[in-house]
Every structure is written in C-alpha cells, then in structure tokens.
Please model this.
Amino acid sequence: MKIALLGAGHIGQTIARLLSGAGDYQVTVIDRSEAALRRLDARAVEVRQADTEDDLALAAVLRGHDAVINALPYHCAIRVATQAREAGCHYFDLTEDVAATRAIKALAQGAPVVFMPQCGLAPGFIGIVAHHLTRGFDEVHDVKMRVGALPAFPTNSLKYNLTWSVDGLINEYCHPCEAIRDGERTELLPLEGLEHFALDGVEYEAFNTSGGLGTLCETLAGRVRSLDYKSVRYPGHCALMKILLEELDLRRDQETLKQILRRSVPTTMQDVVLVFVTVSGLKHGALVQEVFARKIFAERNGERSLSAIQITTAAGVCAAVDLFRQGKLPARGFVRQEQIELDDFLANRFGQAYQQLRHVESIS
Model:
C-alpha cells in the first residue's frame, strides 16, 4: 500500500518508522522543511520536499498514492482532505479541530474513498474505548472521558512541558467543547468544569477542552444521559492558563501566547500519557460503573527514544490504516473512530502500544 505521509515532525517521523518497518507499506514523507526530512532514514522511506500549503503542490505529491496520512497542523486538514479527494486517495488524519472534522465529513459524502479523521489519542483511541464500554450496558447514564499527556517530572509553575503541537494545545483550550447534558447535546466553555481525582497515588485535575470527543456526541445522542471529555493536568495548571487566556486576554492574541510557550516552556521526551474512561448505567437492573485506565510511558533508547505522546498518537493512526487495509473498516465514505472494535485495535500490531494495562474493573 502506497502511503503519502504529510509532515515530518515528531509524530510524522514516528508514523514513518512504524509503517516502513511493517513490510506492507511504501511510505513517501512530504514536508516543507528540508531539515526535517533529513532526519528520516532515507533507506526506509522516500522523501519529497513540497509546499504543503499550496494546493497545486499538494495535488502533485498525492497523485499515485493509495492513501494520505495528514500529520500537519490542524489548520491544514480541510485543504489536504480536499486534495486527497481530488487525487483519489483515502484520507486519515490526527486533527482535534471540530470545524475541520465537520468539513471533512461533508467532503466524504458520495466519495469513492475513505475519509477517517481524528485517528490519534484524543480524539481517537479514547472514543473507541468509550463506545466499547457503552455497548455492555442495558441503559447508559454517564460517560466520562479523561486524557492527559503529561511530563513525568514537572518542575515549573504550570506543571507542564510541551509534549505535542502548541497549535493544537491552544486550539483545544480556546474553543467550545461538545457534550451531552440531561440527554441533550450542548456546548461547554473550555477550561471550565474543573475536577480533581487520584490514580495510582498521583493527584490530577481535569477540565473541559475542545475536540476530544470526536464524533461520539452524534453517535451516542439519545442513548446517554451525560457525556463529556476533559484534559488531565497536574493541579494548578488550569488556574494559570486562565490567567493567560482570560485575564491577560491572550485568547484574542493566540500567536503571542504560542510564542511565549515555545520560548519559555521546555519540551520533554520524558512524558506519560494517561487514559481514563468511566461509564455508569444499568446492567440487568443493577447500577454498575466500568472503568478503563491506561498509563503509557516514554521509551528511552538512545537516539531512538520515543515520547509517550509520539507512541500513542502514531499507534492510533497506524492501527486505523492497518485495520482499513485488512478490510475491517468501511471501504468508502466517512468513518468514525468508534467504528473500530476495541479488541481489533488492541490486537493490532500497532495498537498493542496501548497494552500497558493498569486496571479494567466493574463496580456494582
């Protein structure tokens, strides 16, 4: 299967390494940055430098490929998806942007190829888990989805290090958050709904952020009483981000905020990804809660070290592409993450990255 992989950043490089090492994929990595492309193993993948924000350049590089994986910033999603349809390529991406996903869903109508956005961690794997758990209930009451990509060793006041895209981070902190309340679809404010919990003896906070639900609000509409998604951080992070975004009004000047974060908050490869989902409802007349939890840690291996967010995000999209290639997903049109069976995902050679089990339990 011929794959055009757009983006040679940390996540793109991990995707390229996974797919090229699997033996079933011919991968061409496309990026504007020659320096980023030089970091790839030219023996394993083909590289092409191109302006990924130019429609004509995109159309030229996508032609002749079976599928495109878009690992570019979220604001490129609609452009790339449009050119993928023109080129007759199946389309997969990692976007958390709600507006982009809605536009891609419209593009998929009547298309002879697949459009499957949101193939990462959240949205992505988290939705697969939540949907799987709800199917075991006779009546679903509440679904809570919590995900955090956190530094293993927080040392600053934000208790945070940059582990993924700054553009994506600020996007999810600034846009309305889809949810279901009392059986009705609604939108919540970002950085609201603050809560605290502990897992494995560590204290966390969680608050509303945009995009993590993927398409679950639509899928579960009329079937659940409440559904929400929150990002997990160490205690104190939310209050400081509110100062920046609201009191200093940087919500209206996001480019300045991004510059501040890139200049002042270090990146780290020593991170941990936390996945925590709870579903409660009725089973055989009894009120039951089921909990799914994972902690995925960074892999330290010299120059081939991988952060936890690299592992989980790349594993998500690679598993989606692999399951599609195996015929376990629809062959055309818009495909939701929750159409993936959890057992299929975890059994997949790429999805096995999520097998760092903490606990799965039922509480009556």
